[in-house]
């Protein structure tokens, strides 16, 4: 891949988001949008960072648009990637459970909708406003959310929010058939946070962020494929499988 790409990455400071700038061709440009600034030293392709307000209220998010208007006028965006999101558990409250369990359920669900679904809604709005007619929007779903029974026992909020990402993509495809819209559905990502949270698990089967970013760039951006994609790791190799 040699053609420079003008890209906007929502969640660029997270583990997965950080993996994308190195996968882009040289002379590309990246606008980072995230709660936190990119780690120092900042990757040379990141030309600007726009901090998301912690409240993520609509009016606060709208305040980012003048900066994006300017960046877009200079280099229209060919690629928008949303890697923002998080995970928490909060099961449905069983009979006679403590009131605190009900609170945890509501808090977790609200948090997941805010973190995962709202970031995707924000990214879809950026795509309809800024993405070039031949551009590509790539969203991050989750393999677990593809099967409701997988999430129902202890993480309904997470499953609902990530399944909503897929539904958003379907709506955008119907509205803007000229766009390329893709959702990748990884299993567990190999990050420091996940290793700390699940130290007893077998890390060998987890997907490295750098491998996923490389596969996304090769198949979806350079190769021009689009759609919903399962992310599998077999024989130590990460690959995308179309759903």
UniProtKB/TrEMBL annotation:
Gene Ontology CC, one term: cytoplasm
Subunit description: Homodimer.
UniProt-recorded Gene Ontology molecular function terms: 6,7-dihydropteridine reductase activity; NADH binding; NADPH binding
InterPro entries: NAD(P)-bd_dom_sf
Family: Belongs to the short-chain dehydrogenases/reductases (SDR) family.
SUPFAM superfamilies: NAD(P)-binding Rossmann-fold domains
GO biological process terms, semicolon-separated: L-phenylalanine catabolic process; tetrahydrobiopterin biosynthetic process
Name of the protein: NAD(P)-binding protein
Keyword Membrane: no
Species of origin: Triparma strigata
The entry's keywords: NADP, Oxidoreductase
Source taxonomy: Eukaryota, Sar, Stramenopiles, Ochrophyta, Bolidophyceae
């Amino acid at each position: 891949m040699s053609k420079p790409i003008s890209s906007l990455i929502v969640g660029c400071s997270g583990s997965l988001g950080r993996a994308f700038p190195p996968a882009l061709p040289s002379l590309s440009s990246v606008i980072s949008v995230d709660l936190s600034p990119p780690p120092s030293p900042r990757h040379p392709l990141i030309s600007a960072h726009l901090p998301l307000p912690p409240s993520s209220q609509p009016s606060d998010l709208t305040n980012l648009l003048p900066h994006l208007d300017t960046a877009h006028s200079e280099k229209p965006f060919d690629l928008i990637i949303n890697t923002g999101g998080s995970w928490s558990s909060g099961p449905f409250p069983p009979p006679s459970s403590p009131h605190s369990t009900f609170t945890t359920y509501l808090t977790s669900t609200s948090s997941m909708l805010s973190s995962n679904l709202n970031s995707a809604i924000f990214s879809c709005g950026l795509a309809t406003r800024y993405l070039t007619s031949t551009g590509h929007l790539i969203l991050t779903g989750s393999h677990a959310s593809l099967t409701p029974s997988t999430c129902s026992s202890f993480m309904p909020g997470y499953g609902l929010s990530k399944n909503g990402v897929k539904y958003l993509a379907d709506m955008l495809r119907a509205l803007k058939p000229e766009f390329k819209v893709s959702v990748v559905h990884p299993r567990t990502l190999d990050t420091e946070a996940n290793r700390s949270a699940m130290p007893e698990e077998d890390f060998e089967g987890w997907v490295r962020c750098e491998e996923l970013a490389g596969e996304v760039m090769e198949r979806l951006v350079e190769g021009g494929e689009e759609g919903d994609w399962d992310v599998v790791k077999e024989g130590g190799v990460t690959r995308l499988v179309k759903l």
